[in-house]
Each structure stands twice: as C-alpha cells, then as structure tokens.
C-alpha cells in the first residue's frame, strides 16, 4: 500500500471511543459539583471519589486512543 | 497492520510504530532504579525533617496557646481581685453613708428634743411668773378691797371701825363669802 | 484496505506531516559507543529524580518554625499529599505510606512537567516503560500490604470472594476481581499516565508544527491563520501543565485507594 496515504481510521476510532467517556465524565463532575454545592463541607470526602470515578472512566477513552495508534 | 502513518521522522513501519508502547529494558531499569534511589534518599534525608519540623511547629503553637491561656487566667484573676476590691469599697461607702444618715437623724432628734425642753422651760417659767403675779395682785387687791370697804362702811355707819377687831373679822368674812361666791360663779 | 475510510493523498509536496508515534522514539545521544542506549527520556528521568531530591532536601534543610517562601512551597507539596491524599484516603496508620506517596507524586509531576519546560519539552512518562515501573512499584506495595495483613491465601480469598453476595455470583465475580487486582490495576495506572502524556504531547506538537508549517507556507490564507494555531499551542501549554499535575495527583490518589483497600479488613 502507499505509505503516503494518511488515513482517518485511527482518529475515527478515537472519536467513537471518546463519546461515552465524555458523557460519563460530564455526569461524574456534574454530580460532584452539585454535591459540593449542597454540602460544601463534604468536599474533602467527595473529591477522591470524584477523581476515582473520573480516572476509571477516562481510561476507556485512553484505551481508545491507544487503539487508534495501533 | 493495515493502517500506516507518517511521522515527522519519516515513514515508519508497523514494528516501529508499536515500539513506543513496548517498554525498552533500559527504560524499565533506569526508571525503577531512579525512583527507588530517590525514594530511599528522600526517606533518609528529607521526610523525617519535615515531620520533625511539623512537630516542632505544633509544639511551638501549643506552647504559645498555653502561654496565652496563662496570661488570660492571670488577667481574669486580676479582674476578679479588682472587682472584689471595688465591691469592698462600695460596701464601705454604703456603711459610711448609712452611719452618717443615722448620725444626722440623731442630731436632728437631739436638737428637736432640746428645743422642746427649752420651750417647755420657758413656758413653765412664764406660767409660774404669771401665777406669782396673780397671787401678788390678789393679795394686794384683797388688802385694798378691805380698806376701801372699811372706808365705805365707816362712812355709811358713821363711826370709826378701823381699829375694831370685830369690824376686821366682819370684813374678812365678807371677802371670804365674796370669793367663794365668785368661785362658784366661775365654776 | 478495508479499514481505510478516507484517504487523503498528498501529491507533489509531501505537505503537512502530522506528528505521530515516531516522535516518541528518540535516537541515541551517543551513537556507536558503549552507552548507545542513553536517550533523551532516560536522561530526563534521571534529571527529574535529581530535581525532586534537591527540591525536598533543600526545603527540609532549614527547618524554620516560620517558613520562608521556598520552604513553604516545599512543605505545602508534602502536606498536600500527606493530609489531602494519605490521611484522608488511608486513614488510620497512614504515616507509613506517606514517603512512598509523596515521592510518587513529586517524581511523576516533575517528569510530566518536562513536557512543557523549554529545551526538554518531552513528558518522560509518555514512554511506557517509566509509568509501568511506577505502577509495578505501587502494585507490589498494595499486594504486599494485603498479603501481610491476611496471608497469601487469605488476601486472595478476600479479593475473590467478598462476603455478603449471593453464591451464584461468585463464579462470575471471582475471576474478574482477580484479574482486576493482578492485571487491570497496574496496567490501567501505567496506561492512563502514558496515554495522557502521549496525547498531550501530540496535541502540542500538532499545534506548534502546524503553526510553523502554515507560517512558512506560500498560501496567504494559511499564513494569516498561523498565529491562531500558535496561540492555541500557548493556551494548550498551560492546559497541559494542569493535566500533568492532575495526572500525578490521580496516580497518587489511586495508589492510596488501593493501599487503603488492601489495609481494610473487609474487601
């Protein structure tokens, strides 16, 4: 095949893989923000939980990114 | 690998493209050793110092708080003492005041009784004077009235009765009658 | 080529060459010698370790009760992990793991920040080997804690058969949990770090290389649009700084969570 060709397959793989985590991260931080807004003193308890959820969701998008380059 | 990419370094093969994900042995070793040596060194030289500093700081702050508490307690004691003194002074003042009040009323009472006594004395003296005057006047009057009556009677009878004891007794009886009748009339 | 959806052919001029995985393969600094294996990321990681060591030792040396500006910065970094991560997440008995967590955080943060520091400008941890080693370190730490607490079989029993679930779930749950603890956690830790740094670095390369290419192009429209691309690169640089520190925090936080889970009696 022609090595000069630039394909969009990889970017598209990542684009699809980013949809779900995008929604998920939005939901997580929405819940975190409203939780802190309701009870500001719970911030220290909620922050690790929010970032844990964020990390677990984010890894899905990052796996998609890796597959886009394979 | 059906997809091919271009990199700034030029066209790369599939093996090369995947090699970024396959860790190189030297990277593993250097990364691990670097991290472990760093961890060991910091554990030895840096972190105990931090903890010690934090403890010293905590102790210093606690000492400061203790000092402040002591000063506060001292201030509170001084305040209590001052207030007690103030209360003492206030009580003393009030006793002095009440004593003065009693003294005043006593003096007033004394003066009043003295004045009353003096007034009574004056009154009684005046009454005695009046009585004496009255008695003197009465004695004078009775003598005068006897003489006048004798004069009158001698003129009426025409003879001198002045030296006669009988005549004098008559006059006395007459005056006594007069007195008793006048006293009855006063009564 | 069935998976090729769109192919854009560049004709005479090779045109703009987008950054790719090749940009992460550095040539040896001393080619043809005995130390051929020394590359820029390797040197950068050693430099990061030295910098972290100097940062903490100099900050800890003075030990003033009323800290100066630098000492305060160093102590804040230490207390941020000590209180914000170790104490809040692990709870009772956290003091033992503070050194590990602080070192992990500082080492990752400095390595990541190399991505935006001039002349270095490469996030070392975009090379998969480094984060993999760090992840294996934290993997060994939490496995060691769990095994020391409950014994080898006891620990894996508590991992695979958490109490209080209906029996028919266990055949499904046990392999997943075992895989989770043994494989998924360390690899997701390492992969998260690498992929974030990788993506951030590619993004920066794209904006800067693209801006340079547009600026040097004869096409007037591209020339006019080039400053926007370069401005985007500058804006993304500060965004990357945030992401780089955030990823270091997340790595530390997850490690602390795994340690806390291994320490707790019930799984």
**Mean pLDDT reading of chain B:** 82
First-to-last CA distance of chain B: 165 Å
Helical coverage of chain B, percent range: over 70%
Strand elements of chain B, count: 2
GO molecular function, one term (chain B): proton-transporting ATPase activity, rotational mechanism
Main location (chain B): membrane
Family (chain B): Belongs to the ATPase B chain family.
Pfam families (chain B): ATP-synt_B
Describe this structure in words.
The complex is a heterotrimer of chains A (70), B (187) and C (267). Chain A is built from 2 helices and 1 strand; from the N terminus they run E-H-H. By secondary structure, chain A is mainly α. Chain A has a domain at 26-69. The mean pLDDT of chain A is 85. By secondary structure, chain B is an all-alpha fold. Chain B has one domain. The N and C termini of chain B lie far apart (165 Å). In chain C, 68% of the residues lie in helices and 1% in strands. Chain C has one domain (38-263). Chain C has 7 helices and 1 strand, in the order E-H-H-H-H-H-H-H. Chain C is an all-alpha fold. Chains B and C meet through strand 1, helix 1, helix 2 and helix 3 of B and helix 1, helix 2, helix 3, helix 4 and helix 6 of C. Strand 1 of chain A pairs antiparallel with strand 1 (7-8) of chain C. Chain B: Belongs to the ATPase B chain family. Chain B: It is found in: Endomembrane system; Membrane.
